[in-house]
Amino acid sequence: MSGYRQVLAVPGMASLLSVSLLARTAITADVMALTLYVVLGLDLSYAAAGVVAAALTAGVALGGPMLGRLIDARGVRPVLMTTTLVQVAFWLSVPVSPYGILLVSAFAAGLLMVPAQAVTRQAIAALTTADQRRPAFALESVQGELAYIVGPAVVILGAATVSPATVAWGVGAAIVAGGAGLALLNPPVGTSSGETARPPRRQWLNLRMIAALTMALGTTTLLSGVDLAIVAALRESGQVSWAAVVVVVFGVSSVTGGLIYGALTRPRPTWLLLALLGLLTIPAGLAHDWRWLSVAVIGAGLLTAPTLSTVADAVSRLAPDGARGEATGLQSSAQSAGFALGSPLVGLAIDLTTPAGGFATAGLAGLIAALIGYSLSRRARTAAPEHRSQRVAARAALEFRTDPKGGDPGPD
Questions:
Q1: Which residues contact 10 (CB under 8 A, 6 or more apart)?
Q2: By the 8 A CB rule, do 228 and 101 touch?
């Protein structure tokens, strides 16, 4: 655990993780808060609530790279202040907006969501040394799992005791408090506005980066699919009320796995962790009782946070300083797209087969993303020596042409 002590001893790290946890917990709960408000507050269908949730999620996915570019160009604080003010306006308007306006404003709010996750990852990369980054990103992944466990549960509990409008205001207040706290901290992200030249995108959005983003997409596609498959499996056995217990077991297993992985001395390839996660997800479909299903998801849970942390670490290493914000935004977009893709993909598989087919589909999605990531990374390693040899040959030819003692340069 000495690695964690070293990370938390880094000036500003403990406060960054604390404030970020507040913001990320609230952001994790925003979809649930809007869903319950549309269903209970506006007395509309779950389908109508799903459209609002999809609009918010689409905005977040599209806004990630845009906000990242703004952070690269303008710095952290202006972006955080702007997005925090947008969230103030949106969440104050939720209880008084008709459905049509709520739908449009939800997309705008997602587009300008407080980039707590992206800022945290950039700051970790800037504040830590190479040896500290793996335990630091493990803590960041554990933070995300805690937010996932706590946020939606608190919203559901709140909706059962107070009005859905009050719950929406509470979630909005927490997002605003987290965004304002991050703006006050103004953590370093490796570059200041105007101080670092922005590299061309073709230099860093290469095969290695595409591999990392593909595996980010595959990981969250798997995870969102597993959530739906758990509910479907227990509904089929008449135990749907125990789904929350299974999800909590899954989340606690992920937290445990993240802490164990961050304490290891040797990292593991992202593609290998994702492939193992996919393989361990498939047999969970054989369990039909909530007790056995709780046991069956432990293996996949132990690999969830480690896989997410290696993806974040890979993106931070591959992104140059002048484009780290955009790269981190692309990672957030890939993960948001995975969350949006996983549920309908696995839902279709469940409708066509059984809940076990849902687990199999989620696991296969992870396996396919791992294989694509491995293939792209291998191609990148193979292409690198060829590019180096071509550059050496071109340099030698140029020197030969310009060397007065080089003799006849020959035909062009």
A1: 127, 128, 132
A2: no
The letter for the amino acid at 155 is V
Cα distance between residue 109 and residue 58, in whole Å: 10
Measured between alpha carbons, how far is residue 375 from residues 212, 270, 279, 286, 350 in Å?
11, 12, 18, 31, 29
What the chain holds in terms of domains, given with CATH numbers, is 13-187 (1.20.1250.20), 202-402 (1.20.1250.20)
- Give me 65's structure tokens: 């790279």
Residues 309/137, Cβ–Cβ less than 8 Å: yes
Q: What is the pTM of this model?
A: 0.77
Burial (CB < 10 A; 0-12, 13-18, 19+), residue 157, is: exposed
The length of the chain in residues reads 412
The structure tokens listed for 132 are: 């500290």
| Backbone angle region of 232, left / alpha / beta, with phi > 0 → left and psi within -120 to 50 → alpha | alpha
- Distance, in Å, from the CA atom of 144 to the CA atom of 30, rounded to the nearest integer, reads 14
| Count of Cβ atoms closer than 10 Å to residue 170 Cβ | 18
- Which of these, 180, 144, 170, 177, lies nearest to 33 by C-alpha position? 170
Closest CA to 167 of 45, 29, 51, 22: 29
Encode pLDDT of 217-274 as tens digits.
999 999 888 888 888 888 888 887 788 888 889 989 999 998 898 888 787 899 999 9
Closest Cα partner for 113 from 172, 190, 191, 189? 172
